[in-house]
Amino acid sequence: MTIREGMERKLAGALAPQSLEIIDQSHRHAGHAGANPQGESHFHVQIVSQAFAGKSRVERQRMVHAVLADELSGRVHALTLATLTPEEAAALRPA
Amino acid sequence: MTGTTVNDRITQEITENPVVLYMKGTPMFPQCGFSAAVVQVLSDLGVKFKGIDVTVDPSLREGIKQFTNWPTIPQLYVKGEFVGGCDIVREMAASGELQTMLRDKGVLAA
Tens digits of per-residue pLDDT, A4-45? Predict the structure, then answer.
C-alpha cells in the first residue's frame, strides 16, 4: 500500500468524508530539503466532511493532523489542507 | 538564557512581539515555499512582524511543534494567539478575515 492509499484509508475511516482528494505533489519539490527520492513526501489533501461543521480552521486541521500523526512524523514532510463542510463546498461550486 | 526552556522562550517571543512568524529561513531569505508564502501575505498587507528561523535551532524546530500542537512550519502568532499555518493564513487573507482580525487586534491600521 502506498503512503497515499494509507492516508486515504485512514481519513475515510475517521472523518466519513463526502469527498476526499489526495494529490501527491512530491515531484514539485524534488531535491528540496525533506523531499524523499522515492517520492510521497509532499501532499495536498482536500476533504469535504460534515465532521468539520462548527469547527475553526485550526481545529479542522488538527483533526486531520491527528489522523495522520504517523505519516507526519515520518515520511510525509509537507501537507497542505483544504478542509470544508459540504455546505462550504457547495457554495464554492459554480451555480 | 541558561536554564530557559524552549517553551519559556516561545512564550516570551509571542508575548513581547505582536506578530511572530516561526519559519524556515528569514523574511528576506525564506528557505521554504510555505514560509515564503506567509511572508508574502504579511508583506503585502504591510504588517510588521518578527520572523524566527527555526532551522538554526533544532530544539526550537521541534519545540514549536509541541508548543502549538501543530506538526508543520510556518506558524503565525498574533498577540500571543496561534492563527495557523500557510493554508489558513492564505485562506484568511483571500476572504479578508485576516485583515479584519489584524485590525481588531490593533496590528494593522484601520
Answer: 999 999 999 999 999 999 999 888 777 776 667 777 888 999
Per-residue pLDDT of B29-56, as tens digits, reads 999 999 999 999 999 999 999 999 999 9
- Asked if the Cβ–Cβ distance from B88 to A61 is below 8 Å, we say yes
C-alpha cell at A90: 457547495
| pLDDT per position as a tens digit, A48-61 | 999 999 999 999 99
Residues 27-66 of A with CB under 8 A from B: 32-33, 57-58, 61-62, 65
B62 touches chain A (CB under 8 A): no
Q: Do B70 and A33 touch (CB under 8 A)?
A: no
- Cβ of A72 within 8 Å of Cβ of B84? The answer is no
Q: Which of B71, B84, B87 sits opposite A72 (nearest CB)?
A: B71
For the beta sheet containing B50-53, the strands, ordered from the edge strand earlier in sequence to the opposite edge, are B50-53, B19-23, B75-78, B81-84
For the full predicted model, state whether its pTM sits above 0.80: yes
CB burial of residue B50 (10 Å; 0-12, 13-18, 19+)? middle
Q: Is there a domain that residue A44 lies in?
A: no
In a domain, A91, yes or no: yes
Which among A25, A30, A18 is positioned nearest to A3, based on CA atoms? A25
Q: For the domain that residue A69 is a member of, what is the CATH number?
A: 3.30.300
